[in-house]
Amino acid sequence: MVSKVKRLLIGRPMKSNELDHEKLSKVKALAVLSSDALSSVAYGTEQILIVLVAAGFTAIWYSLPIALAVLGLLAILILSYRQTIFAYPQGGGAYIVAKSNLGVPTGLLAGGSLLVDYILTVAVSASAGTDAITSAFPSLHNHSVLIAVTVILLLTIINLRGVTESASFIAIPVYLFVASIFVLIIAGVFKYATGGAHANVPEIGAAVSNVSLFLLLKAFSSGCSALTGVEAVSNAIPNFKAPAEKNAAKTLMMMGLILGIMFTGITLLAYWYGITPDEKATVVSQIAESTFGRGGLYFFIQGITAVILFLAANTAYSAFPLLAFMFAKDKYLPHAFMVRGDRLGFSNGIIFLGVLSALLVTAFHGNTESLIPLYAVGVFIPFTLSQLGMMVHWYKTKPKAWQNKFAVNTVGMLTTLTITLIFIITKFSSVWMAFIFLPVVMFVFHRIHHHYLNTADQLRICPATDKPCIKGSTVVVPVAGVTRAVLHSISYAKSLTDNVVAVYVGFDEEEINKMEQKWEEWNPGVRLIVLRSRYRSILRPLVKFIDTVEWKTASTDHITVLIPQFITKHWWQAVLHNQTSLFIRSYLMNQKDIVVATVPYHLHK
Amino acid sequence: MVSKVKRLLIGRPMKSNELDHEKLSKVKALAVLSSDALSSVAYGTEQILIVLVAAGFTAIWYSLPIALAVLGLLAILILSYRQTIFAYPQGGGAYIVAKSNLGVPTGLLAGGSLLVDYILTVAVSASAGTDAITSAFPSLHNHSVLIAVTVILLLTIINLRGVTESASFIAIPVYLFVASIFVLIIAGVFKYATGGAHANVPEIGAAVSNVSLFLLLKAFSSGCSALTGVEAVSNAIPNFKAPAEKNAAKTLMMMGLILGIMFTGITLLAYWYGITPDEKATVVSQIAESTFGRGGLYFFIQGITAVILFLAANTAYSAFPLLAFMFAKDKYLPHAFMVRGDRLGFSNGIIFLGVLSALLVTAFHGNTESLIPLYAVGVFIPFTLSQLGMMVHWYKTKPKAWQNKFAVNTVGMLTTLTITLIFIITKFSSVWMAFIFLPVVMFVFHRIHHHYLNTADQLRICPATDKPCIKGSTVVVPVAGVTRAVLHSISYAKSLTDNVVAVYVGFDEEEINKMEQKWEEWNPGVRLIVLRSRYRSILRPLVKFIDTVEWKTASTDHITVLIPQFITKHWWQAVLHNQTSLFIRSYLMNQKDIVVATVPYHLHK
Q1: pLDDT tens digit string along A238-278?
Q2: Mean pLDDT across the stretch B96-101?
Q3: Which residues cross the membrane (chains A, B) (predicted)?
Q4: How many contacts (CB atoms, under 8 Å) link A and B?
């Protein structure tokens, strides 16, 4: 049953050598890896305007220079990451770059920061997309948590089906979104150029008394949230078709270009149309309404925006499992993240991401907006560390014209560092949590690593001297009566060794006598030892007896406890039989150095 | 940790021979077994008045003849059950009496009906007691489910501690309740006799136009809910100190007497004071207020009434586990209900009752009033069957003066049968559920019984001919590398037999070559067989290999699969290691007739 449902949802299992077919073409890669970055235009301009409008309507002209700064930052990031792609063709996420150039702890900080961030991405994007839906259909408002969790569930299933299918599914809405925003910008500019929709807007350079540097920095850092997701391409190089690094670099440039054009267009139109943020309608919605009126095109843009926000969450689904795999390979996360599932994706990473983000959405009742600054900081810390790592990389390897490359990354590092500091200063009340959970996450990585190293130490053998040594065998068979299951176990025990004892734990003299008589009558050729239990516990006297046997013979003999166990025909029938054998087994396994064997006895009716 | 908490809550484990000290004296037995019956006076009169008042204030005089009828019924029940106690000194619950005289299915119907009823008792009483508390402190109203569940939890813990301690704990409030109701009745009668509190009440015999027979029957059956719990004493005879049956009979008579006096007193005072049911104040509360005013005595009576309602639930805690034990002994319920816990109570029955009633309270959001008629029917069905069983008993055994005894039980049977029918007719909308779940419960009993008989059949051996037969041994050791854990397992396997194969499941050629080289270098004297898995599954190729071995050798050899398993020092470290061995073990155990042994390898750091 379970396996049928699984087959239906996930698809047939795939062979390991089908892995190559799962690689991404540029067109699909752009869709899968850039929906996070591209979806930012849905709220980037708005974030800037919200801060500025606090200083009055006149202040909105500042959105143009701030947007220019954000665009500059985008260019710097794209160029920096382009360098990283060629320097680290095996996947140059912040983790790898920081680890190999700045040392392991810095790498862990960068990677851990990103891992946490991907979980936040899914939670925030799913909630934001749900908000878009519930704004259109207010009656759904009470079910927003359910909608967001359902979306997360769907994304998890799609990703468990495999990378390629996920890409095919996702490409269509992503390109529809890009196309519709382009149409909106062209139509909007045309309308403005032909004299329509001129609003009374503050001139560029108009003096505004209460605009402080702090306010401008805050607006700038808010606008920078439009840049989260830019790193996705450089993390995912191994997912590209060959030649992977060239394809990745082209995809990255393309993404930067599209993002830049859309962001510029939206910000310009917003200024020209004199649009201010409104609780009830987003900036993009206002532009679309001014351009097209509330017609079909308007509703189409609103709908596709909601979809793209859901798909932004999907970026994390391709990035998180890959990063978790790298951590697991380096022994900083459980090995389970290295296992490929039936469809060759890292299923455990995908499921872990889905579960944690769904919990986050539930815990915040779908109001995850307060997590956005935290999420932005979680991106800019690894941005900075990655650039710093690249600087060290160029300085150490000194390839041709390394000074230019060094300069690009230096500018990138200083810019992202500045933005990180601006975030921490202007939004400390939202980001202080990072200072608690990042150390915790680092500590967990450290403990896991420590455990794996310790285990390897204890398991290592010297092939030359450590050879199997053969000892005798004593088999202890706990019996509860004279039944076919006991016959089965005794037969098995006698096949292994002559050294077999049956042990019976009795609670009162009457049953003990009865058992002794039965045993004598049966006479299976094995001694029966009777233990008396005054506390109705089978385990305690049994363990005491095994202790004695161990003390007497363990140096010469292996001790095996052989437990007869019923296997009922239907699983639910198991509640009808006592599960003492399970208790005995788990106790002995955990406490003692003896082998526990369960001899199944299958009931056929 | 867990065992310390358990020790603290439940107390130290007790030896089996301490069981005798757990027997109940009459004084304690009265408290433990009659709180259900006695607490009925808190609502019995009120139930009658609620029905009557629907026909107008004048109709309330009918409460007197109806109360008389209820008292008559009480006397009949007490006399009938007194006969049962002496006829069945080993505990003469409806189950035993009906089973041994009317056949097994009737016994199961009576007993099953009671088992379900005890769960309802706990749920209904806990909710009613909570209502009393929240009436006094309205601010607690939103937490009523939490309060009721906490009460159930406390009762469960008290009962897990053992019968005697539970009795000592319970005796005080029960006797305080009885004493305070007696004081109330005496003071009330005195006040009325000395001319106080005369209300303008309808005369006895006053004509009321719209009183129908249906209404009177409904009022009567409502009043009969005051009699639930009367059977508790006869079920629990084995819990009494010797001479058990005499002590039980005396306790039963005493309980009948106290209940009769209290019920009469409350009903009379209610009539004299002209009290009608009120949503905000119970009948007892109104009587107490009229008699004492809203002073200390009034609040004391209210408080102790709430406590007695909680303790009514406790009756079920002594009756349910005992009845479940009998069912389990007769193989109609899982054996688990026969196990005595650390404190000699039937822990599983106690816990089962607690969990199910807590679920019921939660499912009904604490509004379990609608379950009361269902609960009453669940009592009167076994009442009737038990009386019928006693009739057959006397007729078959024909002791001295059996005709008298037969007559008593015949009257009892006819009365309870009539009441059951009245219940079904007047309150069908509340009791129809019984016609669904009783057949379901009966079916479950039947299936469980069938399974146990089948199992016994399959397990039975003929001591003369079924002797252990000795075969050879083949041991298969799945290995994942060359480690100390593998060394350990191979040593063990070679100690058992020379017929050992190591099996390695590889996913790609590179790792397979590496493994083969390592094995050759180590050379432990055991052949390594390499299986290739194209689907990254270890289980599938392994099972296929074992099938082959089985096919080749199973008739001559026992096959053992020996799984090396890490035991980490701390339980949480287990997530860091793959649990493949668990999967392999549970699959092989359930699907195959081969022995699976786990060789523990304890990590020490």
Answers
A1: 778 888 888 989 999 999 999 999 999 999 999 888 888 87
A2: 90
A3: 48-81, 102-128, 140-160, 172-193, 213-233, 254-275, 295-328, 349-366, 372-394, 406-425, 431-448
A4: 200
Would strands B595-602 and A595-602 be described as parallel, antiparallel, or unpaired?
Answer: antiparallel
Model confidence, pTM: 0.74
Q: Is B293 helix (H, G, I), strand (E, B) or coil?
A: coil
Contact at CB, A603 and B454, closer than 8 angstroms: yes
Specify the pLDDT at position B126: 87
Taking a contact as any Cβ pair under 8 Å apart, which residues of chain A between 411 and 470 contact chain B?
448, 451-452, 454-455, 457-461, 463, 466-470
Nearest by CB to B578, from A336, A508, A537: name it. Answer: A336
Please, which residues have CB within 8 angstroms of residue B15's CB and are 6 or more apart in sequence? A534, A535
How far from the centroid of its chain's Cα atoms is residue A395's Cα? 34
Please give the Cα distance from B486 to A564 (Å, whole number).
25
CA–CA gap between residue A285 and residue A134 (Å, rounded): 15
Q: Rounded to whole angstroms, how far apart are CA atoms B24 and B168?
A: 10
Kindly report, residue by residue over A301-360, the tens digit of the pLDDT: 888 888 888 888 888 887 888 889 989 999 999 988 888 777 667 889 999 999 999 998
Tokens representing A501 are: 């004892």
Whether pLDDT at A198 is above 70:
no
Write the CB contacts of B573 (distance below 8 Å, at least 6 apart in sequence). A451, B603
Structure confidence by residue, pLDDT tens digits, B140-188: 878 888 999 999 999 898 888 876 566 777 788 889 999 999 999 999 8
Q: Given the structure tokens 């004509």, which residue do they identify? A: B207
**HSE (CB half, 13 Å, CA atoms) of B112?**
21
CA B371 to chain CA mean position, Å: 17
| Residue position matching structure tokens 């029957």 | B217
Q: State the pLDDT confidence band at B364, using cuts at 50, 70 and 90.
A: confident
Give the separation between CA B557 and CA A492, rounded to whole angstroms. 10
Q: How far apart are CA B159 and CA B350, in angstroms?
A: 7
Helix axes A104-136, A347-363, angle to 10 degrees: 60
Q: Residue range A493-501: average pLDDT?
A: 89
* Cβ atoms within 10 Å, residue B9: 12
Q: Nearest-CA neighbor of B421 among B476, B475, B384? A: B384
**C-alpha span between B286 and B270 (Å, rounded):** 9
Position A303, amino acid: G
Is residue B574 less than 8 Å (CB to CB) from chain A? no
Residue type, position B393, single letter: H
Q: Is the pLDDT of residue A488 over 70?
A: yes
Q: What backbone torsions phi and psi does residue A525 show, to the nearest 5 degrees?
A: 85, 20
CA dist A437 → A113, A433, A532, B320 (Å) = 9, 6, 54, 50
The token duo for A228 is: 């989260």
**Cα–Cα distance measured from residue B314 to residue B320, given in angstroms and rounded to the nearest whole number:** 10
CA dist A188 and A203 (Å) reads 20
In terms of Cα–Cα distance, which of B440, B340, B318, B283 is closest to B29? Answer: B318
CB contact under 8 A, A482 and B469: no
Helix axes A539-553, A580-591, angle to 10 degrees: 40
List, as one string, the DSSP characters of A316-382: HHHHHHHHHHHHHHTTSS-GGGG---TTSS-HHHHHHHHHHHHHHHHHTTT--GGGHHHHHHHHHHH
Q: How many CB atoms lie within 10 A of CB B513?
A: 12
What residue type is B296 in one-letter code?
Answer: G
Token digits of residue A452: 């794996």
Q: Does the structure show a pLDDT above 80 at A100?
A: yes
